[in-house]
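Discussion board: Methods & Data

I've been asked by a reviewer to show the raw model output for two of the constructs in my manuscript, not just the figures. I'm not sure how much to include, so I'm pasting the format here to get opinions. Each protein appears as its amino acid sequence followed by a line of discrete structure tokens. Is this the kind of thing reviewers expect to see in a supplement, or should I convert it first? Here is construct A:
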Amino acid sequence: MPEREPQPQGGASELASFGEELRREREIRGISLKEIADATKISRRFLESLETNDHKTLPAPVFTRGFVREYARYVGLNVEEMVNRYNFAAANDDRIEKPPQVEKYAKQLPRDISPKPSPKRGIPPAYAKVDRNAIVVVIIAVALAAVAWWAVQYNKRRLEATDVIAVTPVTTPKQEPVTPPAPEPVAADDSMLRMTVEVIANSWVILEADGETAFNNEMVQGERKEFEAKEQFRFRTIGNAAGLNLTLNGMPVPALGGEGEVIKNRVFDRKSLGELRGEEPPANP
């Protein structure tokens, strides 16, 4: 009987675990389905179907892969890895396009086993008969002689210069001590807002600078990063408020919360910088 080809693994249980993993990673980062739906323009109904393994509600797998790709990119997962895992989990879905069969063994051309003539050896050049060790000895001897000649000439010039200095007295005019001017205070450079983030405990961070996403990933203990913005920083999510030490243009920012506390939409702008410096807000005209 002909040997049966192995069937692809996957199915409902793998799809269920895949959907559960998506939901777990989203909840760890404190992201709602509405946020993903608003950002990716994917129907919330389809996102819920992904997480609950309701594959009958989802469109054809070629479209569902696009949903998985956008979902993973927004949450901060490895896009290609999650798409490959979806393909593996949904391998038994009859809507998946099956790859064409490939011939098991490629055809090989017959090898040429006819005897080959040995390469001809010509007459070696004249320099090949010279002993290389003798050449190395000559080069070392010349180098040592050059170093010895340079040392003799150097000592001779140094002695002549010492004799001239000993014969000719040199008088140095007395100089009055000069007091250096006091340094002028340097004005703080506030042309840009600079946010320094030092991580003392692991935390998931989503940070925007002037409305653009500057960081969306997990920060690890001991890590230190700097960001710049013209007008505003917005921490969309901080998964562990006590895990970050923040500095705005050199001014330390008070702790944002306790251990494990999730912070949402915390804004730092030029007004915040003035408050950290203790400056009085400008009076209303």
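Construct B, same format:
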Amino acid sequence: MPTWNELFDIEEYRWRNPHEKVIEIVNLLEDRKGTRILDLGCGAGRHLVYLAKQGFRVDGMDFSERGLLYANEWLSREGVDASLTRADMTALPYANNCFDALISVHVIFHNPLTQLRQSLSEIYRVLRPGGMALLTFQSTRSYRFGQGTQLEPRTFIPDIGGDAGVPHHFMDLAEIGKELDQFCVWNVNLSEDVNEGRAKSSHWEVIAQKE
């Protein structure tokens, strides 16, 4: 089973361009200098650099030391700042109601359901009332759903793909609604890369708000 430190040493996992939904949520935030955003699972820093350049106050958190090292180096090269913290996504080291927005792209589904729920609870806790969240989840339509070792219903350790060996929890639309019932969900989009009629990759992209 690869570690995230090992994966971030592979260049293809150090993504460079911001996710299109991150650009979309930025357009919903008006007061850029006064807005504090957490990138939960910031990895090598692609969203930290983008958000910092847009003028936001940015925090980045990841469990991988290597990911944070690459992120810090990239921020320095670009001449922008972000506060970086190493921590687990199920126990965020931040005060209640301290972020205006939070993004977490291709991160929180890398856990069994109990830990995923803990992450969602922590996300809700650290967002201020009215705060926005962008979250992505693996879909049960993915070609890797059901592949590899099953840990529990809908949670597998895939044996195929670049991150084979890393836990994945797969969700359908009904489960998305159930697990996000504490949020006001603004938008849910299914993003897929389809090959020969089957989804090679399939993710739910959710924009939600803390009521």
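Answer (T.O., handling editor elsewhere):
This is acceptable in a supplement if you add a one-line summary per construct. For B, something like: The helical segments are 4-8, 20-26, 46-53, 65-78, 113-126, 173-179.
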